Amino acid sequence: MRSVRRLAVAALVLAYLQIVFGAIVRITGSGLGCGDHWPDCYGSFTPVNRGIGLLIEISHRYGAAILSTAVFVLAIVAFINRDEQGVGGAGGALRSSIAAAGLVILAALVGAATVKLGLNPIVIVTHLAIAMSLLAVLAITVMRTGGLGALSDMSGASPRTWRAARIAVILAALTLLLGALTANVADAAIACGGFPWCRSVNAGGPPLILQITHRVIAFLLFGHLWGIAAALPRRNEPRALVRSARVAFGLAVLQVLIAAAMVEMHLPTVLRSLHQATGALLWVSVCVFAGLARIAAPAESKRASSLAPEPA
After folding, report:
1. How large a percentage of the chain has pLDDT more than 90?
2. How far apart are the first and last CA of the chain?
3. Helix-helix angle 121-144:93-116, to 10 degrees
4. Which residues of the chain fall below pLDDT 50?
5. Long-range contacts of range 63-66, CB-CB < 8 Å, 24 or more positions apart?
6. Residue 190 to residue 211: CA distance in whole angstroms
7. Measured between alpha carbons, how far is 72 from 78 in angstroms, rounded to an integer?
8. What is the secondary structure of 188-205 as a DSSP string?
9. What is the chain's alpha carbon radius of gyration, rounded to the nearest angstrom?
10. How does DSSP assign the chain, residue by residue?
11. Which is it for the CA torsion 115, 119, 123, 129, positive or negative?
């Protein structure tokens, strides 16, 4: 179990770093640093051309290869240790690690399509969605091996916390996807001048609608996490849940501050990657909170949620 946990933590860290580096690739305009060549770069994995765009893009591909190797090793080690408690069977780390390996393969295929289709915004957002799903699955894998507070005392949890956690996951996912669209659709990122409201409109139509929708959903997530962080201590919820909710809300506060700085202070290129870096951390923290809430939820609440139809 301990070896699986360590590998899962390593894979989670690598996946996070790869997403952050992906933001640097996008912000620096290096997505086509290797032209339309994939997986090699102009016919070589060690190209002679040393342009900055090429170096950034090929480094991102090296990172993807390292991450893929880590995830596959995780799945293999989990399979070898499948007889250990918490690894094999329903709710074990083996199933989630195999799911992570599948997501890595899917991410590679969509990554190739991203290059071949010339950085189509929809394909880019799909690629990010897969990467964020991989982060969530790896976080779940770590929790299934007892990490990230999963072994804490969860007695006394309220069913309302599990419901609130599911809403937080939905809002966080929508915020991430809309943010990715805003960053990649032409003029959407600059459509609204000013923060939090638009003091000037620099582009109308769909780009403006996309930018405003992203902000509205982001503030809904912010308010929801604020409410959760305030309510849990009053209900005497388990300490692990309270701590997890506070971490998620703290990251939401940081994300809003970074977004404000991006708009109002026109941060330099490298610092703009902090927005996605914090967003990815926020996503992981919300997934961890939801995982803890799922563990803490009373049995009857779990049965009800599994039988109830999913929201459209």
Report:
1. 44
2. 37
3. 160
4. 299-312
5. 63/14, 63/17, 63/18, 63/21, 64/18, 64/107, 64/108, 64/111, 66/14
6. 8
7. 10
8. TTTSEESSSS-SEESS-S
9. 20
10. -HHHHHHHHHHHHHHHHHHHHHHHHHHTT-TTTTTT--SSBTTBSS-S---HHHHHHHHHHHHHHHHHHHHHHHHHHHHHTTTSTTTSSTTSHHHHHHHHHHHHHHHHHHHHHHHHTTS-HHHHHHHHHHHHHHHHHHHHHHHHTTTTTTTS--TT--HHHHHHHHHHHHHHHHHHHHHHHHHHSTTTTTSEESSSS-SEESS-SHHHHHHHHHHHHHHHHHHHHHHHHHHHHHTT--HHHHHHHHHHHHHHHHHHHHHHHHHHH---HHHHHHHHHHHHHHHHHHHHHHHHHHHHS-HHHHHHHHHSPPP-
11. positive
Residue type, 55: L
In sequence order, what DSSP letters do the residues of 151-167 get, joined into one string?
TS--TT--HHHHHHHHH
Which of 128, 124, 126 lies closest to 114, judged by CA?
124
Residue 193: how many CA atoms within 13 Å on its side-chain side?
Answer: 6
> Token digits for 233?
């201590």
pLDDT tens-place string over residues 99-130: 999 999 999 888 888 777 766 788 888 888 99
- The pTM for the full model equals 0.86
Determine the pLDDT at residue 311.
41
Q: Which amino acid is at 57?
A: E
